[in-house]
Amino acid sequence: MTRSEVTVVVNAHAEGLMLNATLRSVRQAADAARAAGIGVKAIVAADRPDPLTREFLANGAKDFEVLELDHGDLGLSRQSAAEAAATEWICFVDGDDLWAPNWIAAAVESATRFGRPAVWHPTCSLYFGEALFIYPHVDMESPEFELRYLAVDNYWTSAVFAPTEVVLKVPFLRSSSRDRLGHEDWNWHCRTIQAGLLHKVVPDTVHFIRRRAGSMSAHALQHQSMCLPHTLFAQLFEGSTVFDGEVA
Amino acid sequence: MDSFDLHMTARTVARRTVRYIGLVMTRRLPAPMVRAIADQLPPLIKARLRNIIFSVPSSPPEVEGPLKTLVQNALLSVKDFDSELGWLVPQQIQTAPVIRPRLTLNLHRLLFNLIKSFRSRPSFVVLLNALTHGGAELYAVSLYKALVSIYGPNAVAMIVTDQRKDTARDWLPTDATVLFLDDLQPALDLVSKGYLLRHLFALMRPRAVFNVNSRALWDSLPAYGGTIRAFTSVYSTMFCYDYRGDGAKGGYGAFSFRDNLKHHDGVLLDNEAFRRQLIEDYGVPPSQQAKMHTLYTPLQDLRDDGASLPPGGPNQNTILWAGRFAFQKLPLLALEIARLCPEYAFHFHGEGDPALTEQMKAAAPSNVTFFGRFASMEALLREGYGLMLYTSITDGVPTVIQGAARFGVPIVAGEVGGIPELVRPDTGWPVARASDAAAYATAIRHAMQDSEERERRAGRMRKLVVQQHNPARFAVALRALVEETSRDPL
What we know:
The structure holds two protein chains of two kinds.
Chain A: E1 6-12, H1 19-35, E2 40-47, H2 51-60, E3 65-69, H3 74-85, E4 89-94, E5 98-99, H4 103-114, E6 118-129, E7 133-136, H5 149-152, E8 161-163, H6 164-169, E9 181-182, H7 184-194, E10 198-211, H8 216-222, E11 226-227
Parallel strand pairs in A: 1-2, 1-4, 2-3, 6-10, 9-11
Antiparallel strand pairs in A: 4-8, 5-10, 6-7
Chain B: H1 4-7, H2 10-26, H3 31-38, H4 43-52, H5 61-76, H6 83-86, H7 90-95, H8 106-116, E1 124-128, H9 135-151, E2 156-160, E3 178-180, H10 181-184, H11 190-204, E4 208-212, H12 215-231, E5 233-238, E6 242-243, E7 249-250, H13 252-255, H14 257-260, E8 266-269, H15 272-282, H16 286-289, E9 292-294, E10 318-322, H17 331-340, E11 345-349, H18 354-363, E12 368-372, H19 377-381, E13 387-390, H20 399-407, E14 411-414, E15 429-431, H21 437-448, H22 451-468, H23 471-485
Parallel strand pairs in B: 1-2, 1-4, 2-3, 4-5, 5-8, 8-9, 10-11, 10-13, 11-12, 13-14, 14-15
Antiparallel strand pairs in B: 6-7
Helix pairs in contact in B: 2-3, 8-11, 9-23, 11-12, 17-21, 20-22
């Protein structure tokens, strides 16, 4: 039996039939990776799924391991999936988004070539649905990267590729939409940087991020969420130059 | 979107522009989304906005071209999976904006400038509306000084949030960290100030924030109270209601306390009476009552306490009234009291509402003299007045009463708000019927006609105020409060 090298985690909640598009894109990317000799394990982390989503998964996701969870929280769901992964790498996709087919294979290649633990993002995301724009992801080693941007906004999406060990050592936190503290991925990105990791970009890769009124991110935006507390900047306050420089 | 410029009416442009500015100002969307919307605005409007609040970033064509080709090719492999993606045509990808994550909002610049203003990361931040000579401002200064005495000067900063006023800067040590939000940008609106404060707290993670009448913070609490408390412990002050001319209650006690108590680790009051009143008015349950702490305003440093003043000065038969000429201080009642006591001279020190001042001057009897604004209460008290008259609809424990008490000046005052916590039958002449001029006149005559009793009560008052408003006692109580109720955010 081939050892799985990558666990793909699809985070689901109430996507219903929209999940089908996500799973089809994940299957396509997994098949491409397997063709390149990479073992892929696929999990759907279904956190308090609504009836339609549960029924869809029972019928349309037989080639996925369905992990039904009762967190009511995206960050904790990602964490549970990471604990169930048991592979060297892990990558996440939200249940309404899609990947281009080369994502898994290209990410494994970039990560292997880099040789050090890092968090990987696609070259860009195409936002579609309620908005249409292209969002290029910034590599921390590029001159475009400014650490202080993370003080006010999130550089990257949650659809990351990373060593599973990183997720286990720097766990995702529970977000609290009641207190307008969302963006568990923003917090995680900050804490992984604080842990000494670089966030890198996998060349020639694209994710497709759906913008819809009822999505979790739209919910967080509507409530004007801020990043969950972290200490990335607290230690930099005294005499730090990280906040110096002109804003464009 | 391509036919946008041709078909957009002036009304649509106006609507989108206003919406865009609203999004930026209230930050309902993250910067990339805001920029995406900005890209839909006509070039002329965009250019105008660039100078006001936003610089619209653009990617060079040599970067955008390959990126769009990459997206277009990737799209081919998934378009059959989802009809929303399948419906997109190459032209739409070619014209889609490329939104680069960059610091472009004016608020970002202001936030970083604010952060750079700090010499170090303070553990405590005192917020106040304006640094002027007022009772609330004195309380803020007292908090600052007490925190410095406990935790050291580098641990405390003061941020003046609402108005660029610093007439009471001399109340603080010269090396105190005092920042004014209006120094970042003149006429900064309260929404932007709220944004700056909550992001500052998120990055700074102070142990506690003390809010003394900062509207920028009060206005943020309904929406962001829970968020702010994730980054720091929150304490606010409450002194008394403000009253409108028709008697309607106003001020933070009336409009902010009830709905924001849940967002607090503590509420500090300068008198016990207002604590009891808030509890009664809102039916505050015991668990929340435990958050409400009465810490009397500490007495300020004086050159001396007046004990060395020679008795029987030129003003021994003169009665002092000092304060703000405002409806709440009942100056017209004070004039009526003076009219009922023609045998004594009355000196009115203060200024305020111009219309009320005119009315007062027109109504003043001949035994009243107006002196205008006074430089310091201490200087007034050193003039050796025989008695101080204090009138008010309500109050905490007024600083002028504390000052008079400290100097041994006998006091006649209405029994309202926190005043009976100092002016008691054994320490002064409290007037139960606080709006009855004749009752005050009777009390004044009793006091003025018995110099030995005046001396006895003034002596007891001096002991009471020194004990109750002791700065060391204030610092000890504040320290206990912070240690027991604040949460270390780091």
